[in-house]
Each structure stands twice: as structure tokens, then as C-alpha cells.
Amino acid sequence: MIRRVETPRPRRRRLRTANARPRATVLARAPAVAALAMGAAACSQSSGEAGGADAPYRIGARIEVGAAPHGMRFSPDGDTAWVALSGEGRIAVVDLSESAVVARWEAGDTPLDLVRVDGGWLVSQFRDSTLIRLDDEGQTVPGAVWGVGAGPSLFTPGTVRGETWITTEFSDRLWTVDTRRGAPRAFHTTGDRPYPADVMWDGSYAFVPNLDAGTVSVIDLLNGELDATVEGCPGPPGGALTPDQVTYVVACGGSDEVAFINTASFAITGRVSEGLGPRPFSVVVPGDGRYALVNNAGGNTVSVVDLESRTVVQRLEVGDQPIVLRAHPDGERVFVANELSGTLVELAPAPAAPESPVPSEAETTLNEVVVLGMIHSGHETSEMFSLEVVRDLVREIDPDHWLTEIPPNRWDRAWAEFEATGTVEEPRVRRFPEYMEGLFPLSRELDFEVIPTAGWTEPMSDFRAAWLDAYSRDPDRAEGWAEYRAAAEASADALAAGAAAADDPRWIHTDAYDEAYDIRMRTYARLFDAQLGPGGWEAINASHWAYIEDGLDRHRGEGVRFLLTYGAGHKGPFLRELRKRDDIVLLDVGPFLDRVAAAR
Questions:
Q1: Position 535 in a domain
Q2: SS3 505
Q3: I want to staple 111 with a disulfide (CB 3.0 to 4.6 A). Which of 84, 209, 355, 574 is the partner?
Q4: How far apart are CA 102 and CA 85, in angstroms?
């Protein structure tokens, strides 16, 4: 049970200010594996699994599927795979538990990939420049054919709010596909000869490698704009986002390397070449995001890149011309289609070393969490909740880990700027005075780890602002806007009635404040969330919370203290989630305010 206490208790110290390890998913992290040297002797091991005893992957099943396999999909339970056989115009249905093909469907001309849609499948026809429809039994749906331009290739690995995307290689387009209607609906122009794209969790950005242009196009899908063109990666045929959405890992087939692109600045932050094979082609980052797997299409291997050390730690012989990699729904296994061998090969995590006994509940030390609701620019003018009060509160709380309203893909730049110049220019971070005048200077005084947790993206923010502005001006929506404005006024009245001063931190840190704020946001969510998508109130809180929860999970049972700072309106949703956890103690803000006041 979670309990609330009035005074803090002693606990052990943690790390000095540092960037968090990249968040992957809300799953538990894999054990750390030391980086391994990739010498010539290791690469010639007869097992074909270079890397030594601690290598992270092993080769599992090898399944003969048919001619020139490419894209594949899995059933939700992971027991069945559907594999597009471009060399014979069929889909192979594979029972993975038996490692056997159990059916073959006719699938048109050069099917490169397929994706599940309502009532069946869409299948790309590379030579025919179309998408065709199959029903759930694999029968062609008459008349269900869409021309999309020359060379439709692979769909994105997943879907976002019922949409997926596919590039057309020789018409320089990225198509959006509505999986509920089972049809393409619009396209964006890419660079020269686009290869398969990957899309951020919220559908905000698509990263498209352009093979002949030697670039990566970054397309703002929400606002329909080209945001950036990243150069410096010769002949890129594929790439993948890390699960934390901080990095796009792109295969540079023309230079036999992979490059790492930050998803906020679009700058290349590093490269790896040693240990890769010829013509790296596609990338997948499974599970918790520790490793990226890269297939070397000019040979017969898959390279495993440790994303922490940015080194190749293993190379596995899988078959001739490995062409497409896909992660399995279990989050652990990866399957590779080998075009010339005609095989589907399973790559599974190597057996883990025996784990230490799990401590009993009585032996597990609870962590402490303090939630501070911020008023952002209001701190600059408030006397009761000034920046000085914020700094003094943080000193009294003395956190081991500070969970911040900073996007993970913007933290590295902000911290590097602060270390180099003593100031921060990164625009999203710079807008928060509690960080500019609190976190950064206090990092020189206190010992804490910064864990950036904001799910905010710039396209989402721009789309939300434009959509709400248009809604407010639309005469056909006047009734809905009036309802929202009335709820906002009622919320403001309740907030004002709760205390003599709206900026009183004691009032801000009450359940009554959260209830008053919710009057507005419940109506906002009901009226707007479906149209705002990732910018909706519930969606953005869920994306923030996923990062927060991961930070808490990584330090479960350590007996440390977390400080969580977000805009005060987010405090209520986060507290509701925190109260569900049985591994933390929520500390009231009141006693810390008392000590700050007593010291003045």
C-alpha cells in the first residue's frame, strides 16, 4: 500500500547530475552486457555467432518459406507469421510454433510487404505500382486496387491511430494508409528514391531514407510539411527509431556504417562502421532498446549494435542476402528474411545468466516521490511561489532523481550547452524558468540525476494550436467552443475560490486544486481529444506518464527519492497514477514548505 508521510526519512545518495539512459519502453530493462571486441578471429567462429559467451543473441529456427521473402507480419499472439514472397507472387503463412509453412496465398505481382487492415490485408505490388486487397482467408478482393506510383515497397513497422505508411521507391512518395478503410488516402513528397520509413509514436514525424539522394527526409505528418533534410549518409536504404524516440538509427548502405540522428535537432550524433558487414540495409531496435540489429544485405550476416557503447558486439550468419528485419510481438525475438536463401530466420535473446533471488516484499525498500506543480513563467512574478522558493524547496527535498518536463531528445543538447557556456539555448528547455534558474544552477550544488520525461513534440504542439484556433473561429462549432469556455471559467472560479492567492503553493499542492483544474480539462478532453490525437489531454498525459513510469521502474526498490516537476495542471493525473503503485511513498509538499518558511 502507498502511504503518505509528513517528514522525510534518511536514504542513500545516488548519482550526480547526468542524462538518463535512453528510455526504451515501460518494460523492464535488459541486464547490461559489456561491449565486446569484434576482431577478425571472433568473426570467423564456426558457429556464425561472433561475440563470445556473452553475445546477446543466438540463432533459433530456420524456416524455408519460398522465393525472395521480404516483409512479414505477426499475429497478436505471435504464433503465426505472414511473409511476402516477392519471387513467386505469394504470401507464406507460417506456423512459428512448428516452424513450418501451413498455407500459401496468391498475392499478385511482386508482393514486397503486407499490413493488416479491417477485414483483411493490403499487399504492395512492387512492379505493378499498386496496393491490392486480400480478405482474411487470403482471397483477392475484386476491384480493391489502388495505384500509388511506381515501386511501392515496405510499410512502416507499426500503426498509429489506425494509420500506417508506405514509400513508393520510383515516384518519390510517402503514402498514408487508413487501415480502418483499408486504403491509401494521401501522400507526401520525399527525396530521390525513398526506402522504407519509420514514424514516431505519436504520428508526428516520419523519417524517410532516400537511397539515391543520400539523405533522410524528416516529414511533419501532422502539419504536412518537410521539416528537415539530413545529409551525410551515403545510400541509406533503411532505419529505425529507438523506442525512446530520441534517435533514428539509419543504415548507410553506401559507406557500410550506421549513423545516429537526434530526433529533435536532426543532427548526426555518431556513427558506427567497425564490425558491420557489406551494404547494411535495414535496422530494427527491439525490446527495451538496448540493441539495434542491422542486416548486411551484401553478405549473409546481421550485426548487433550496443546502443549504449555504440559498438558492434556480435555478428550472426543468417543466410544469403538478408533483406528485411522485423521485431516479434514478444519484444525479444527478431526475424530476418533472406532474399537469396528463401528463408525466415529467428534471432532470439541468448539465455540469461542466473539471476539473484528476488527480495521479498519485506526486504524491498520503498522509494519516495515528491510531486511539485509548477507555474512556469508565473514563478518569475510570484512572491509566494517565486524562483527562490522553488530553489529552496528543491534544496529541502534534496532529490536523488529529478523527473523533468523536458523531452528526452532535447536534454543532451541542453546539458551540453550548459556545461560549455553556463547557459541553455535549446528552445523547449529554455522556456521553463524553473529549470533555467533552478535545475541547472542547483546541479552544481546538489547531487541528482536528471531524467527527462516529457512526451511533447513540436509538430504535435503546432498542430494542436492551429486546430484549436480554427475550432474557436468556426461558426459551426460555436456551441462546443462556448461549452469549453464556460468550463474554463468555472474552473478558474473554483481555483480562485480555493485560496486567497492563486499562486499559493500550499493551495496548488492540494487535491482540491486538482479537482478545480479538472473541471476545465474534462470538458476539453471530451470535446477535443479525438481530433487532437497526440495533443489531446489524455494522450499527452499518457505519453508523459510512460517516461515517468519507466524512470520509477528502473530504480524500483532502491530507497531513493524522486522529485517530479510538471505544470500544476498535470499534477492530478500523475498523482492518480502514482497512488496505484505499491513501491513508493508519496511525500506531502507541506512539510518542505514549512521548513523553507522557517528558514526565512
A1: yes
A2: helix
A3: 84
A4: 14
